[in-house]
Specification:
The chain is α/β, with parallel strands linked by helices and 492 residues long. The chain contains 15 helices and 19 strands. It is 40% helix and 23% strand. The protein is elongated and about 80 Å long. Bound molecules: manganese (II) ion.
């Protein structure tokens, strides 16, 4: 499915009190707003106006339908007039889709000369949305609240960003992750409770033997490899004469893709400790699969793989890029401090500043032939790094704001893709906060989402969210984490 296949249902609250004329006007305006929002170009998914709701039954029915509709990724509610909220309880108590309360108003201005009691009866969102807000709070319902004039670009863009988070939640509920082998021996942060994750996030995380992958690799034909080599040639610069090594990566990629597609998996993990029967650790193969939308995690890190797939799906059509990432090393020169992110091989070329080069170099780890990989620099720009960790009994999503720069040195002997960034609020404090929260060395680096969207996603999934930004201090964060830990223990 594409993000464009999803839709959001617009449910407008009212009641019978004002007579049929007012209700007709509300319905007409709701349709007009829907059409204009859809035409704005600021929403990735279309809105469908469903009903001007006046009764408990209408609301219950539309929410039941929304729950069961595959294409519906959420509901957007708004109260043009006053809509008594007890009639929303039965529906909202059973809502299983993401919910946005859009606190807007049909008219931008108060019309000085025209305003009278008829106008007041029709245009009372300020009043109705407060009643609507109360019942959301009373139900402890996870909902996004967006306030502002519906024709303003910034308001539309926030609605569009929330749509992406909501679609990410729908994608998550159906996500299947293919593990080739287990995670790296003795590593803690790549472990996790897969049953808990499936209950909370929907992920079906299962393992397939590497020997099975080798079987599929052995059946890949030369014609299939030729076709993929042509694709590599159109996208990447060949900085190697070792064509057989590149063709071997193509063979691995084709085989992995066949297995992923056969099982309906959109994310995968592998580990250099389990490559039995394979001549090379997949490098270019994993990188190019990621560039086409699959999630990946190294060393068996299925959590980061799934998060990479989700963020890639949420950001479909955006151009900044999203990659599996690992914090590698620091530049600790006072006032000029940077993190260098890279991986053994597998950084997604969607974040590249220029055309990636295919190179072949030996790999110090893994006891295999030198693999082909894509080498490039990440581009400059605002981004986030995201890490999902299992705290034992619950999941925590950590999101840090970063600013990526053009790497300040060429590092000609570093044979892998690299991204350099400044963490917020600065390297030292940002690092202390990340470590305090338990953030992993693996993360998803994305230029195409922001912390608000990741928070929206975490709220929908009902998991803990931690944001490290320009204002975060270790003292404040430690206090927040302490309280949060108690709250989540009570809650679960
Ligand atoms: Mn790693």
């Amino acid at each position: 499915m594409s993000i464009k296949d999803y839709e959001f249902w617009f449910v407008v609250g009212s009641q019978f009190l004002y007579g049929p004329e007012v209700l007709e006007t509300v319905a007409k305006r709701a349709q007009e707003m829907t059409d204009k929002l859809n035409a704005s170009g600021n929403l990735p998914c279309k809105i469908v106006y469903k009903v001007t709701a006046k009764t408990n039954a209408e609301i219950t029915n539309v929410i039941r339908d929304a729950n069961h509709d595959e294409k519906c990724a959420g509901i957007i509610t708004w109260c043009h007039t006053f809509s008594p909220s007890k009639m929303w309880i039965n529906g909202l108590a059973n809502l299983q889709k993401p919910w946005c309360h859009f606190a807007t108003q049909y008219n931008r201005e108060i019309p000085n000369e025209e305003i009278d009691m008829d106008f007041m009866n029709l245009n009372q969102a300020a009043h109705g949305d407060r009643e609507h807000g109360f019942i959301g709070a009373r139900l402890r319902a996870a909902r996004k609240i967006i306030a502002g004039f519906w024709q303003d670009e910034d308001v539309q863009k926030r609605l569009g960003k929330w749509q992406r988070a909501a679609v990410g939640a729908e994608f998550s509920k159906k996500l299947k992750v293919m593990r080739f082998g287990d995670n790296m021996r003795e590593v803690a942060v790549t472990e996790g409770d897969k049953v808990e994750v499936q209950i909370k996030l929907g992920w079906q995380v299962n393992t397939w033997p590497v020997g099975k992958l080798v079987d599929v690799m052995n059946k890949v034909t030369d014609e299939e490899i030729d076709a993929l080599m042509n694709e590599y040639k159109s996208l990447y610069e060949f900085a190697t004469d070792d064509i057989e090594t590149v063709r071997y990566q193509a063979r691995e990629e084709i085989a992995m893709k066949k297995m992923l597609d056969r099982e309906g998996c959109k994310a995968f993990s592998n580990t250099f400790q389990d490559l039995y029967g394979m001549k090379q650790l997949p490098g270019l193969a994993s990188q190019h699969l990621m560039a086409t939308g699959y999630g990946y995690g190294g060393e068996g890190d299925w959590k980061v793989s799934a998060m990479t797939a989700i963020i890639k799906f949420m950001t479909e059509g955006k151009k900044g890029g999203t990659a599996f990432m690992e914090d590698y090393t620091y530049h600790l020169v006072e006032g000029n401090e940077y993190s260098l992110g890279a991986h053994m091989l597998e950084v997604c070329p969607s974040v590249a500043a220029a055309k990636p080069r295919i190179e072949v170099h030996p790999l110090g780890i893994g006891d295999r032939e030198p693999p082909a990989r894509l080498v490039f620099e990440g581009h400059e720009g605002k981004a986030v790094v995201v890490s999902l960790v299992d705290m034992g009994g619950r999941l925590r999503l950590i999101c840090q704001d970063i600013h990526c720069v053009k790497p300040i040195m060429p590092m000609p002997n570093l044979p892998v893709a690299r991204v350099m960034w400044q963490a917020m609020p600065n390297l030292k404090t940002g690092l202390e906060c990340w470590i305090l929260a338990g953030g992993a060395h693996h993360s998803v680096l994305s230029y195409d989402v922001d912390a608000e969207q990741m928070k929206d996603w975490a709220r929908i999934m009902d998991i803990e969210f931690v944001h490290i930004d320009k204002d975060t201090t270790p003292e404040k964060l430690e206090h927040d984490l302490f309280l949060s830990d108690i709250a989540w223990r009570l809650n679960n």
